[in-house]
Write a structure and sequence with these properties.
The protein has 240 residues and is mainly α. It has one domain. It is 80% helix and 0% strand. It contains 10 helices and no strands.
Amino acid sequence: MNEYELTVYEEVEEWKRKIMRRSGMMNRLSKKAQGKINEFIPEKVHEVMTESIKAMVKATLFGSQVTTNMDQARGMTLAERDDLARKKISTFQKTAIIEGAGTGAGGILLGLADFPLLLTIKMKYLFETAAVYGFDTKNYDERLFILHVFQLAFSSDEIRKNTLYEIENWETRKQALVEMDWRQFQQEYRDYIDLVKMLQLVPGIGAFVGAYANNNLLKHLGETAMNAFRLRILQKAPEL
């Protein structure tokens, strides 16, 4: 590893330690309450929601793949890739802020439209970041990796730790990971964002809440994606 890669290695290790920390009490109580609510939701509703999210994500994956320039960072150093990745985060944060403010100000009907719109922004961002770090999303296993990065960012403690393990050992684990657990995927994501998205529907504060929440969600996803891709690059770097 060169000097910059050693610095990145320390940053990635600190990020992994943060991922492994237990969530705060409020987050744990919120997750417990949402778990109880999910128990009262009929199984048929869970099935419909799972299939809806699955179809929505797969459509978004296809669209993002078509519109992403896979050669945009060809020949760049890791430092240059990191710089471009940070610029991507900033750009997508601004897009998410505008989207959140617009749907938040529009009341319940536009608020409901926020879910698929924000999901599209997040997935497009992940495709762009994969391209920045030189991973070809035309390959199925790279699209599957993107979904694991998404799940790592938006899940509870136990699922987050299990997903980090899969990402750390991707080259040996990807052959066994044929398909996502879509039920788990949609429920973890929905539970993660439910509270703030409900506040976005409140008249008078919806626009502010939507803009603020979307900015933070993209920032969090950006940190997760950058470090997940950097981790894979560092695993291939020759040791000193």
